[in-house]
Every structure is written in structure tokens, then in C-alpha cells.
What we know:
The protein is an alpha/beta fold. The chain has helices spanning 14-23, 44-51, 65-74, 91-96, 120-129, 164-189, and strands at residues 3-9, 31-38, 56-58, 79-82, 101-105, 133-140, 150-157. The chain has a seven-stranded mixed β-sheet, with helices on one face. Strand 2 (31-38), helix 2 and strand 3 form a beta-alpha-beta unit. Helix 1 runs parallel beside helix 6 and helix 5 packs across helix 6. The radius of gyration is 16 Å and the shape is globular. It starts with a strand and ends in a 9-residue tail after the last helix. The mean pLDDT is 96. It binds 5-O-phosphono-beta-D-ribofuranosylamine. The site of 5-O-phosphono-beta-D-ribofuranosylamine has 14 residues, from helix 1, strand 5 and helix 6. Residues 9, 11-15, 83-84, 104-106, 118, 172, 175 line the site of 5-O-phosphono-beta-D-ribofuranosylamine (GRF).
Amino acid sequence: MPMRVAVCVSGGGSNLEALFEAFSKPGDTAVDIALVLSDRAGAGGLARARGRGVPAEVLEDPADGAEWLRRLQHHRIELVVLAGYLKRVPAQVVAEFRDRIINVHPALLPAFGGEGMYGKRVHAAVLASGARESGCTVHLVDEEYDRGPVLAQARVAVEPGDTPDSLAARVLAAEHLLLPAVVREAARRGRPVPLRSL
Ligand code: GRF
């Protein structure tokens, strides 16, 4: 039986697309992306989902844990993937899906994480720090932003002359490999587990 996965997005959804591509090969039945959830009706990820015939739902109140749980239970979701989802997941959902919610963050946590550290700000902070490398992290979600146990990281070089945009593009390409790898391993093992770094 495929693992039933919900993917939560706030924006463009390129990580969602990478997941669709990773798990839509004929004969590959590891993962069923059974629901895409968003806090924003205009999130590009919703359109990607609808284009593939996958239920795409907008949370009426992203802070309402009961609404989340109703939707996740209705679709019999086993794993929740935050792929560019920017709001806090309600504590009730974290408790009910303990160790079954993962997030992808565009830096090497625990550095450059926490509330307000998202998008360009992350990459600008990495460049300002003078770090020679950056990367991405997939971690379990707990009650704090970007603090749950790390499952996997991928490293990329910071190149001379990098801008937040050029660094973001390099990191995003790494995310598109790392996140599907963690989800595939979660499906194989029945729950998210640490992965050797790529
Ligand atoms: C990614 O960099 C992800 O790490 C961060 O938000 C971005 C989402 O990009 N949390 P996309 O919507 O998947 O294209």
C-alpha cells in the first residue's frame, strides 16, 4: 500500500512538483500524494495539484487544528510534508501527527533557522555571515520553528559573487533531490527516519 502523503504549500510549489515527478513513474507505488493543503488560495502549488487531479484544499483558518485534523483524517493521511509552507502548524496537529510531519528548510539547520527566517532572508543571512557553504535540511516538525530533529541535509557551495537569488536557486535544486529521498525512505520504513546525507 502506498503511503498517503499530504503536502502543504504557501507558494510556488517547486518542491511539490519534484515530489509529483519523483512518485508518478509508472509502477512506482511507494507514495500517494493524496492531498495538497495551503493557507493561501493563490498558492501556485494548488494549481499544480489540480492539474494532476489531486485534491487541493485551502485552509479556512490555518491556526485551527481541528480543521487541519478533519481534512487530514478525511484523506487518511499518514505523513505530512511541509514544502514551502510558511505558517505555524497548530500544536494539536503536531501532537496528533507526532514524528509524522516533516519540513524542508533552505539552510543547514540549526544555523539560519527560526521564526522569520524564510525565503530570501535565509540566503541573505548566509551570504552576510561569510559562510563558504550552505544547503538544505529536512527535519521533523515539533512545536518550535525549524527545531525538530534533523533527518537529512544536502550541502552546496557558496560561490564568489553569489546573490541571495543565485544561492537560492542552487539550494532549491538540492531540495528537489533531498525531499523526495526522505519521503521515499519514510514510505519504505513506515515513518520518517534519518537519511545519510546526500
Ligand atoms: C523552499 O526553499 C523551501 O525550503 C522553503 O520555501 C521554499 C519553497 O519553494 N521552505 P517552493 O514553493 O517549493 O518552490
